[in-house]
Write a structure and sequence with these properties.
The complex is a heterodimer of chains A (458) and B (164). By secondary structure, chain A is of the alpha+beta class. Chain A has two domains: 196 residues, Aldehyde oxidase/xanthine dehydrogenase, a/b hammerhead (Aldehyde Oxidoreductase, domain 3), CATH 3.90.1170; 197 residues, Aldehyde Oxidoreductase, domain 4 (2-Layer Sandwich). In chain A, 26% of the residues lie in helices and 23% in strands. In chain A, the strands form five sheets. In chain A, strands 3-7-1-14-11-12-13 form a seven-stranded mixed sheet, with helices on both faces. In chain A, strands 9-18-17-16-10 form a five-stranded mixed sheet, with helices on both faces. In chain A, α9 links the parallel β17 and β18. The radius of gyration of chain A is 26 Å and the shape is globular. Chain A starts with 17 loop residues before the first helix and ends with a helix. By secondary structure, chain B is of the alpha+beta class. Chain B has a five-stranded mixed sheet with strand order 2-1-5-3-4, with helices on both faces. In chain B, α3 packs across α6. The chains are: A alpha+beta (458), B alpha+beta (164). At the A-B interface, α1 of A face α3 and α4 of B.
Chain lengths: 458, 164
């Protein structure tokens, strides 16, 4: 096909939703209104870790416009975990807290009222009787004996197929270290980040005459939200009609299923449309953040710059609940060795629970934090060995045909070409043997270990 | 406290709205008058999404009590959108991909219009200064600035909306 016959490739194609956005006609969740709509506000835990002794709604009920309060007892299947849909378990997060709260801001009871003001007022008047419990905020402290235990299975870590962490084993780490001239250690701590989308998380759930609930939501994960909502409400999927696609910014922050189940429950029980939209304060305080990690590297490197062993112990702070973090930690484990051919790799990634706000997805979750740490470590190795940071990466870059530590053969590597282009663009000089490198062959080098080929490892 | 009627000009039309005391202009526009092009990202005057123009001045409608605009002239995005086609700023935002999720767009357009009405040929620094109170979390500031620059470059001094 000639280039002239292409009408999209090579062209700037205007956004499908652009006209709607520039005229302000796009409807976001807060733009959706129904005349008989009710407003839902959440009673949240003021403490990081506490036992719930009692909840007193008597003053809230007196607020003009108060309609109804909901607690966990109203939720058909209160305990869930979002990723149950892809086999992650066990369920561990309550829609509404039962006996205990594990983070400050956790949902305890939902108040539904005729106006937003009444809902805020009534929620503020709910009296909580809480017994404060010791809290833990550090991933390594949470794994020490004597730490407050947060999960019913008796530990503060996610269990990966019977193991206390996600493990990757490749080659022989001790043999690798024995061949090294330098041991390069590093600790990196990418912090939690709030996505802060301009449109806060929210939905409107509207009961229909045919018994279905229409849910207008700004989720990034429409069917994930629908399926989880159906499971939580214990209704067939066809009782729910999810309408979405318009998302006022999200960046991974709108993949958790938090607002839809409780708004749908409230709509079912009141017979009215119910809006549950986070305030900006809620978006900052209680929506999931990017996962924070503490990542320890111990690398064995030869004096000519070849990484021969990489041992990583990383702790993912999941906060109080799973959300998407067990999955993020798995991706993290797969990527923390970097796009480099390292013959001996030993990785432990712990998915740890603390009394912090749950963490979840954000832009390349698990991988971005791994790349951040890996590349800082590469620079440290370059400085230790006394090599150019581009050249040390070219030397160690994976090639097509290499086996990755998680047992996948590389078939789409272009890293060598990308690094060479980047060097050229910033006029960074490269040595001749580095200029000659490609992603399809390894240069001969006396100190270069045998390439880790798929054949040899199988 | 009793509700009261506030009268003002909205996009060239005399408008009455019955509101409770302390109702903000944004709430009155969005919830009472169905004028939802004005967005609210924070309801506390921080993000700029709710920017509208009152008597030629850009204001944050989410923290302005609607009583304050009694007898004043309010211009929202609906008011600069022609019956057919687009305002030059809208056209430039669309063509320059100055729009991603779209939520900040109405506020960005109104602050840009307020700027160009006063200063038809702003420098890049003046554009950046004018837009500095409006957040875009898709981090698309450069195309937004480019769109405003494009309109300013073609500006013949007649940047008026349809109701001015």
């Amino acid at each position: 096909m000639s280039e002239q016959s292409l009408n999209v490739v090579g062209q700037s194609v205007l956004r499908r939703d652009g006209l709607s956005h520039v005229t302000g006609k796009t409807l976001y969740i807060d733009d959706i209104q129904f005349p008989d709509m009710l407003y839902l506000k959440m009673v949240r835990s003021p403490l990081h870790h506490a036992r719930i002794q009692g909840i007193d709604f008597s003053e809230a009920e007196k607020v003009p416009g108060f309609v109804r309060a909901f607690t966990y007892k109203d939720v058909p299947k209160n305990i869930y975990t979002i990723l149950c849909l892809i086999g992650v378990g066990p369920d561990e997060e309550p829609v509404l807290a039962e006996k205990e709260v594990l983070f400050k801001g956790e949902q305890i009871a939902a108040i539904v009222a005729q106006s937003e003001e009444a809902a805020i007022e009534a929620a503020a008047r709910v009296k909580l009787d809480l017994e404060e419990l010791p809290a833990v905020f550090d991933v390594e402290e949470a794994l020490k004996p004597g730490a407050p235990i947060l999960k019913p299975w008796g530990t503060n870590y996610f269990v990966y197929e019977g193991h206390h962490c996600r493990r990757v084993r490749f080659g022989n780490i001790e043999e690798g270290f024995a061949k090294a001239d330098f041991i390069v250690e590093g600790c990196y701590e990418p912090k939690p980040i709030e996505h802060a989308p301009l449109e806060t998380t929210g939905c409107v759930a509207k009961p229909e005459a045919n018994g279905r609930i229409t849910v207008y939501t700004n989720t990034q994960a429409l069917y994930f939200s629908m399926d989880n909502t159906a499971l939580i409400l214990q209704v067939p999927f066809n009782k729910l009609h999810f309408v979405g696609g318009t998302v006022g910014g999200a960046f991974g922050g709108k993949v958790d299923v938090i607002v839809e189940p409780i708004a749908s429950l409230a709509a079912m029980h009141t017979g009215h449309p119910v809006k549950y939209l986070y305030t900006r304060e809620e978006e900052f305080h209680v929506s999931s953040t990017r996962v924070a990690y503490r990542i320890y590297f111990k690398d064995g490197v030869t004096k000519d710059g070849r990484i021969v062993a990489r041992q990583v112990t990383s702790y993912a702070d999941s906060g109080a609940y799973n959300r998407h973090t067990p999955y993020a930690a798995t991706k993290h484990a797969a990527n923390i060795s970097g796009p480099y051919a390292i013959p001996n790799v030993h990785i432990d990634v712990h998915c740890v629970y603390t009394n912090r706000v749950p963490t979840s997805a954000m832009r390349g979750f698990g991988v971005t934090s791994a790349s951040f740490a890996t590349e800082l470590q590469m620079d440290k190795i370059a400085r230790t060995v006394g090599m150019d940071p581009y050249e040390i990466r070219l030397l160690n870059a994976y090639r097509n045909g290499d086996m990755r530590p998680y047992q996948k053969v590389v078939s789409d590597a272009t890293l060598v070409e990308v690094i060479k282009s980047a060097a050229e663009m910033v006029n960074h000089p490269l040595g001749k043997r580095f200029q000659a490198m490609t992603s399809w062959d390894r240069p001969n080098s006396p100190a270069q270990p045998e390439p880790v080929s798929a054949e040899k490892r199988s | 406290m009793a509700s009261k009627i506030v009268t003002f000009t909205l996009n060239g039309h005399e408008t009455e709205v019955l509101v409770k005391p302390l109702t903000t202009l944004a709430k009155a526009l969005r919830e009472k008058l169905g004028s939802t092009a004005t967005k609210c990202g924070c309801y506390e005057g921080n993000c700029g999404s709710c920017t509208v123009i009152v008597n030629g001045e850009p204001v944050l409608s989410c923290i302005l009590p609607v009583e304050e605009v009694e007898g004043q002239s309010v211009l929202t995005l609906e008011g600069i959108t022609p019956p057919e086609g687009l305002h030059p700023l809208q056209q430039a935002f669309h063509e320059n991909f100055a729009v991603q999720c779209g939520f900040c767009t109405p506020g960005m357009l109104m602050i840009s219009k307020a700027l160009l009405d006063k200063n038809p040929h702003p420098t890049r620094a003046e554009i950046t200064e004018a837009l500095s109170g409006n957040l875009c979390r898709c981090t698309g500031y450069d195309p937004i600035i480019a769109a405003v620059q494009q309109v300013a470059a073609g500006n013949n001094g007649n940047q008026g909306g349809t109701h001015e």
